[in-house]
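User: Hi! I'm working on a homework problem where we have to compare a predicted structure to a textbook description. Could you give me the structure for the chain below?
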Amino acid sequence: MSLLGVEFINEGSGISIDDIVTETQMTFVARAILGWRPIVGGDLRAFDPSVVGANSPLAVIRQAYAAQNIAQSMGEA
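Assistant: Happy to help. Predicted structure tokens:
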């Protein structure tokens, strides 16, 4: 899953003495969300940003983000 164009709106934190836990919460807005994809054959190298090519995960994310920007500039989104 990938979140594109994320803008953090607010941040908060809390401490629990009973559980000895420090928590941080964030509220955000994402311009686009790409869904979950299966890991084919258990090969985690497919998610390495150094992998190049038209079908690499990073290239697909860039293409989706560029398409959304074009649609917005044309008033379609």
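For your comparison, note the following. Residues 2-73 form one domain. The two ends are 21 Å apart (CA to CA). Good luck with the assignment!
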